[in-house]
Amino acid sequence: MGQDVLMSAAEDVADQFLRVTKQYLPHLARLCLISTFLEDGIRMWFQWNEQRDYIESTWNCGYFLATCFVLLNLLGQLGGCVLVLSRNFVQYACFGLFGIIALQTVAYSILWDLKFLMRNLALGGGLLLLLAESRSEGKSMFAGVPSMGESSPKQYMQLGGRVLLVLMFMTLLHLDASFFSILQNMVGTALIILVAIGFKTKLAALTLVVWLFAINVYFNAFWTVPAYRPMHDFLKYDFFQTTSVIGGLLLVVALGPGGVSMDEKKKEW
Questions:
Q1: Looking at the domain assignment, is residue 163 inside a domain?
Q2: Which terms does the UniProt entry file under GO BP (predicted)?
């Protein structure tokens, strides 16, 4: 009984938060989501020579192809960010950013590093949710026309996006036996399962946003490390990737779980 009251109170708080922020939340979600692409595109500009030399030496592909790789990453990421934020050609921007993720996964050998691979897949999940949102906006002009329900592609984009987003949290689980780590793992696992299956989705996603934001600021505080140290770039990369996943979760909060979820099925029961 007490748990039901506590859950009801938490859902009321989440609903109140959504009512207050509903006009701003999608914009904040998109900004967070593209932050890692924005940061990486700017980094390509300021570290042009280092990035080109790394690709040239790693793949032995020659000066021209290495330069093309850096240029493609710079223009593709910054251009995609501009299109997403301006709400123009969002679907094309998402496909372009998907391509950048795939290209970097191969070029930087992320494919063989499970932690970074899972984080890149989580980033792809955020882009899937952005695609789903753009489909919603594209159909908003027909809001008064009766329909047979959400289109299947959008439903499954939202499902795929939710499932991929939870991969980020799997990289944060700690395997030590301390009480705090066990508690964090149990609570975190419960929340990511709720988001994945779409049960109490908005409340679970909002809780994960708060949790992930706190972890991100505490563990990835790159601004406390001098810029000349390699750890600065590693923490900065992690910080913005995590911020992008926060953006994806905020889209889940703003849009809901979609048709393929327990929350939607409950409405039919």
A1: yes
A2: Golgi organization; protein transport
| CA–CA separation, 211 and 204 (whole Å) | 11
For residue 79, what pLDDT is reported?
96
Please compute the mean of the pLDDT values over residues 208-228 and round it to a whole number: 90
Q: Alpha-carbon distance 201 to 253, whole Å?
A: 7
In a domain, residue 14? The reply is no
The pLDDT assigned to 222 comes to 94
pLDDT digits (tens, 9 = 90+) for 243-262: 998 998 999 888 888 777 87
What's the CA gap between 260 and 225, in Å, rounded?
44
**Model confidence over 110-122: pLDDT tens digits?**
878 888 888 889 9
Q: How far is CA 78 from CA 48, 66, 73, 134, 217, in A?
A: 14, 18, 8, 19, 25
Structural domain tally of the chain? 1
Q: What is the pTM of this model?
A: 0.84
* Alpha-carbon distance values, 9 to 2, 14, 36, 195, 203 (Å): 11, 9, 35, 19, 11
DSSP state of 88: S
Position 197 in a domain: yes
* Helix extents (H) in the chain: 2-21, 25-46, 48-59, 62-86, 90-107, 114-138, 152-165, 167-170, 179-197, 201-219, 230-255, 262-268
For residue 159, the enclosing domain spans 21-135+154-260
Q: CA dihedral in degrees (3, 250, 144, 139; nearest 10)?
A: -140
Asked if residue 142 belongs to a domain, the reply is: no
Angle between helices 230-255 and 114-138 (to 10 degrees): 40
Cα 119 versus chain centre, distance: 9
